[in-house]
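Running this now, will post back.
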Amino acid sequence: MHRVLAGIVKNNFVVIGRAGMDFFPDPPGTKTEDAETFKSGLGGSSANIATGVVKLGGQAALVTSVSHDSVGRYCVKQLLNYGVNCAHVKSVGGEFRNSLAVYESRVSEHQSVIYRNGAADFQFTNQDAEEVAYGDFGALVTAGTVFASEPSRSAAFHAFDLAKAAGLPIIFDIDYRPYSWPSAEVAAEVLSRAGALSDVIVGNDEEFGFMAGGIKKGLEKAHSLSQSSAKIVIYKMGEKGAITFADDLELHTGIYSVTPLKPTGAGDSFMAGFLVSMAQGLSLEHSVLRGSACAAIVVSKPGCAPAMPYQEDLEMFLTQHPGPSDVKG
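Update: finished.
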């Protein structure tokens, strides 16, 4: 039922958005300023989602631009190593550079620095969008950062139109990152427009609150989107779990408690786990819970894409974990 509701007919996703390089101090717990050794890994919200999907047994093609240099080649090589389809990953020259994230594997006083000046992924164009055979996929997936600058913003909306014409549902992770946007006002208008065009919307309480004009209005905004345009809306509340709206259903789910090593990567892993589970025909509740389990796995390990679970990792986690936290519905 809910697979039909989401409109995902194939476990094969076209994902639009950035790939980047991550640096994190080693060993875990080290402050950036005290580090002598760093480890690297693939990062970037859309690259993480695509990687997570593939590691869980699905298929994913990433549509993005990378810098024509060693860092761009690193990102492509990592994507290929994980099995992500890179046929639509374009290399761009000039002063454009891949995003770089430097973050720590610690929760207390966690520090994260993102370099996004002249980001290569913002060079995604209308022509790039038109080169994708959308009918080959089960859904289009993107995160809010793709809308933060031109030409990527217009190209992403063009991709929405092309995907809809091909009968694909639009899966949208709000993923609001203030540092990428020219202003909060522009972000609110553009992200709201993207949300109104999407079939499945995933975001946290702060992101929905931002779109609604106030944190206290976030839940109402999520519910209203499920009643007007979106088929499924997932309102995440951190340790309090999530509320999922679908038709007249209001589903409350808990989280899988773990000892976190870091806060990064959870949302991307949740999305991957949720999408693959839906595509496999699991119920909406089980899909949300498996997404939550994937998020728990990622925050308990270093890195983002490297920490995304394989199918066997997820099944082992679910077997060994006592289960999700109780919630009040």
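Residues 231 and 247 are 7 Å apart (CA to CA). More later if anyone needs it.
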